[in-house]
Write a structure and sequence with these properties.
Helix content: 10-25%
Strand order of the largest sheet: 12-19-16-17-14-13-20
Order of helices and strands: EEHEEEEEEEEEEHEEEEEEEEH
Shape: globular
Structural class: mainly beta
Distance between the termini: 30 Å
């Protein structure tokens, strides 16, 4: 139904991921921006966790081989069908032979393309999400290439519009609420302050595994070796060079660096829009319990998309 004419920077098949296997060294993976991914599926009438295409930084060209209703959401990439602009966070009809193009990502990093019924991929541990480091899921465990053709179930689309107030705002300055990590108080007082006061910038060494950040040095009071400990998406590691690393969707399951901060679960979706050059600020989660914030956001979006949770 859909052919990859140009894969751009990168395009992979993603769904809601494969939770519950970190003890085996397998990260959850899945859509890096879970909210935009879910909204794209919502707009074509799919369950929120239906496999879709995750497009990174733009440059993708897709050709359709059947009349379809499709949807896009996430980063602003100046999408066009046959040279005509289409609105972000919208569903629209395409005809056989039409070509959808994404330009460069001027705001955000990842856009999602959803088709009615989703796209087919290789399942591993209950998910078709592509985990490139281990070659799992997706299409042969790899990023999609030019001339790849993907199939989709023959289902009737139910085009829907996102109600007012549910569409997230994209920005090149990502603000993440966070709580102190297990080794936060092992950091110097200046470093503790820097984490919550001064913004960082994502370097070129940024991908689905992690984002290396540049800014004020974050260093311990007294340097000492640390036993490898569990990591989660949103864990901010503080290596000896003083430049923090933010663990992303495909991040390692354990690590031996100080864990300075942990991004609250309700804000993890925003990390999927971090690209090289993105400014990142951390805000201490004070006066609002992270569990209450998560519960409210789950209720809000769960009322729109059945079964959805951050």
């Amino acid at each position: 139904m859909i052919e990859i004419r140009q894969p751009g920077t990168r395009v992979t098949i993603q769904d809601a991921g494969r939770p519950g296997y970190r003890h085996l060294g397998i990260p959850k993976s899945g859509a890096a921006d879970k909210l935009s991914f879910a909204l794209a599926n919502f707009m074509v009438g799919n369950p929120w966790n239906t496999p879709a295409l995750e497009c990174v930084l733009g440059g993708q060209h897709f050709k359709f081989h059947k009349d379809l209703t499709v949807a896009i959401a996430g980063a602003e990439m100046w999408a066009q069908v046959n040279g005509q602009n289409v609105e972000n966070f919208s569903s629209f009809k395409v005809r056989a032979g039409d070509i959808l193009t994404f330009s460069f990502a001027r705001i955000g990093c990842r856009a999602y393309l959803a088709l009615p019924g989703g796209v087919e991929g290789s399942e591993f541990l209950g998910s078709v999400s592509t985990y490139l480091q281990a070659g799992l899921g997706g299409l042969q465990g790899r990023a999609l290439q030019a001339r790849d053709t993907l199939k989709s179930p023959d289902v009737k689309p139910q085009a829907r519009t996102i109600p007012k107030g549910y569409k997230p705002l994209m920005s090149n300055h990502v603000v993440l609420r966070a709580v102190e990590g297990p080794e936060f108080y092992d950091l110097s007082l200046d470093s503790q302050r820097h984490l919550f006061v001064n913004p960082f910038r994502a370097t070129q060494n940024t991908n689905r595994m992690g984002a290396r950040l540049k800014g004020n040095l974050v260093q311990p009071k007294v340097a000492h070796s640390m036993t490898s400990s569990p990591l989660l998406p949103g864990t901010l590691q503080c290596p000896p060079d003083g430049q923090p690393i933010l663990a992303m969707a495909d991040g390692h399951c354990t690590g031996g660096y100080y864990r300075g901060l942990q991004v609250i679960r309700a804000d993890l979706w925003q990390m999927g829009q971090i690209k090289p050059g993105t400014r990142i600020s951390f805000r201490r989660s004070i006066g609002e319990d992270a569990h209450e914030v998560l519960s409210r956001r789950n209720v809000f979006y769960g009322s729109l998309m059945e079964g959805f949770s951050f």
